[in-house]
Write a sequence for this structure.
């Protein structure tokens, strides 16, 4: 029966893929027919789950690339479909109808709220948690709720190794009975970095102090009242060798690592993937090769050529991630164009007031030729940018208008987009033949 359901779901995935879908529907159908199908699908895999507010998609993609260096098959969904239906769809798409899985890896990103449902059914070898930021408050509420959901999920998998961001204070003393592997920065990323959000001690609720900040509230924290502090680092960034608008070069535990993506958050993503790989026994040379060979894809600093415009699509979804996405482009001293697509669909969060917590003002230091604004809340974004000091904005009320504007533009364009705007605009560009492959 399982095989028939899997075959049916594969056919549904193929057909829906012809029309630009296929990331959730096959899994939803399979779960309707066989609610316990997930256990069958992961049989034979070494399972790694990645969750957290920001960085899941890129971290799983980098880890997949690293694990392929070992000669083993590593499957994951790079589309960002991370609820249960999306996880099942990924495994169905990669299910071998002939032959069997033997020691291969399933690297699966999982939505924070759905993790507990996944770990209630399967036993992962590794669970990685990237960070916990305020995100979609209409759905998750405050960070303590997100933390509680992730803790519950990890308690369902007592044998899993927990790979945790040590610079995230909410993950200190995390699931005390669990096995931990902590990664983080032993040096500040930028000398002038300051925390942009107050954080409090998990033990006594006193404000935490940070000897240095990487970004937002992440860094080397300690409590001046009860002594709660950052745990010892098992894998650390020891030195920042260089940072540009296109890449970073770091030293990680004495090993130089080239990261072909910009931004502090991508250093964290690479570090998390490297930590997972270390736990799985992968060599440093394979880790470095996997990170260096990583390609930006699916709206995570993905570049699309539109006539003479080189459009870099950068996903933003909350103040912390948006701030670092903006910081990642500031080193570019060329004359560039900028754009923001703001949607308020369920996948984005229906409350867009968070845009007033983002320092768009710092973009004024860039040489900007044109500034495009679009999305379902284009005019809200235009007002926000007006208050940030931008006078001449091109408000595009449709993808057709935005495409026409891009076709008239030359050079680099940094386009910041919320999730549903990213998927919608990519589908539009795919129909217009500017993107060859819709799903990776």
């Amino acid at each position: 029966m399982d095989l028939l359901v899997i075959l049916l779901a594969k056919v549904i995935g193929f057909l829906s893929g012809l029309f630009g879908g296929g990331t959730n529907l096959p899994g939803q159908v399979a779960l309707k027919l066989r609610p316990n199908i997930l256990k069958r699908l992961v049989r034979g895999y070494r399972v790694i789950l990645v969750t957290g507010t920001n960085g899941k998609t890129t971290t799983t993609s980098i880890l997949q690339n690293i694990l392929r260096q070992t000669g083993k098959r590593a499957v994951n969904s790079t589309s960002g479909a991370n609820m249960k239906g999306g996880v099942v769809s990924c495994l169905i798409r990669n299910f071998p109808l002939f032959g069997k899985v033997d020691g291969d890896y399933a690297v699966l990103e999982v939505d924070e709220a759905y993790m507990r449902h996944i770990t209630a059914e399967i036993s992962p070898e590794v669970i990685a948690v990237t960070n916990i930021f305020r995100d979609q408050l209409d759905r998750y509420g405050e960070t303590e709720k997100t933390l509680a959901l992730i803790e519950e999920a990890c308690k369902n998998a007592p044998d899993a190794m927990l790979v945790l961001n040590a610079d995230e204070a909410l993950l200190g003393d995390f699931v005390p009975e669990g096995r931990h592997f902590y990664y983080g920065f032993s040096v500040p990323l930028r000398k002038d970095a300051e925390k942009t959000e107050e954080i409090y001690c998990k033990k006594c609720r006193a404000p935490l102090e940070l000897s240095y900040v990487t970004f937002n509230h992440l860094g080397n924290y300690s409590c001046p009242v009860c002594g709660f502090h950052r745990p010892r680092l098992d894998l650390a960034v020891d030195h920042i060798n260089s940072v540009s608008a296109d890449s970073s070069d770091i030293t990680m535990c004495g090993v130089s690592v080239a990261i072909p993506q910009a931004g502090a958050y991508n250093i964290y993503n690479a570090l998390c993937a490297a930590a997972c790989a270390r736990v799985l026994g992968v060599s440093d040379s394979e880790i470095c090769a996997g990170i260096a060979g990583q390609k930006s894809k699916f709206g995570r600093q993905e570049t699309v050529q539109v006539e003479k415009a080189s459009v870099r699509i950068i996903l933003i979804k909350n103040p912390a991630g948006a701030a670092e996405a903006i910081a990642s482009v500031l080193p570019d001293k060329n004359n560039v164009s900028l754009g923001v697509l703001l949607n308020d669909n369920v996948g984005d969060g229906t409350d867009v007031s968070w845009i007033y917590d983002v320092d768009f003002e710092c973009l004024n230091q860039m040489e900007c030729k044109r500034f495009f604004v679009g999305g379902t809340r284009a005019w809200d974004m235009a007002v926000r940018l007006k208050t940030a000091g931008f006078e001449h904005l091109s408000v595009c009320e449709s993808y057709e208008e935005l495409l026409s504007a891009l076709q008239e533009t030359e050079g680099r364009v940094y386009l910041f987009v919320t999730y549903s705007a990213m998927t919608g605009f990519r589908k539009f560009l795919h129909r217009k033949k500017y993107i060859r492959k819709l799903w990776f």
